[in-house]
Amino acid sequence: MIDFDPNHDAGLAVDVFQRLEQIRASSPPIAYAPKAGGWMFFREDLIQKAFSDGEHFSTSLFNAGAQSGAPDMIPLCLDPPENGPWRMAVVRQLTPGKIKRLEGFVRAKAETLIAPIAARPSCDFLKEVAEPMPISIFMELMGLPAEGYEEFRNLAVQIISPEGLDRNTPATAAANARIIEILADLIAQRREEPRDDLVSSLIQETVAGEPIGPRELLAICYVLFLGGLDTVVNAMSYGMRFLAMDAELQDSVRRDPATIPGIMEQLLRRSTFVNPLRLVKKDIDLEGITLKAGDIVWNMCGAASNAPESDTGGPRHLAFGGGYHMCAGMHLARLELRVLYETWFKHIGPFELDTDEGPIMAGGPTMLIKRLKLRLNAAN
Ligand code: HEM
Question: Where do the coiled-coil regions begin and end (predicted)?
Answer without folding.
Answer: none
